[in-house]
Amino acid sequence: MFIIKIVTITGKEFELDIENSDTVEKIKERLEEKEGIPPAQQCIIYSGKQLKDDKKTVKDYGIKSGVVLHLVLALRGGNCTYTYLSTLITIKILIVLSSL
């Protein structure tokens, strides 16, 4: 068992205890318990890439102790949009959806 850090799009941070055998699906279920976000609306990003396969394990993705996973919300239709910046800056983007 080891600890990883989760960072949400709002900047909230918390830690999860996970195992190498945990699947992405299991992590999403635990995130739902903590944050109330249904797994279908979650996108988990590791090292700039989306963890798309819910059946793959932490070990499959090479996730180790102390790494940071980013939790972002999927847009309607299930698309996940995320931009990875390698610099230490924060950019907040406000998207306003309206019915025209």
From TrEMBL:
It comes from the Eukaryota. SUPFAM superfamilies: Ubiquitin-like. Keywords: Ubl conjugation pathway. Residues 2-78 form the Ubiquitin-like domain. PROSITE patterns: UBIQUITIN_1 (PS00299), UBIQUITIN_2 (PS50053). InterPro entries: Ubiquitin-like_dom, Ubiquitin-like_domsf, Ubiquitin_CS, Ubiquitin_dom, Ubiquitin_ubiquitin-like. This is NEDD8 family protein RUB1. It comes from Rhizophagus irregularis (strain DAOM 197198w) (Glomus intraradices).
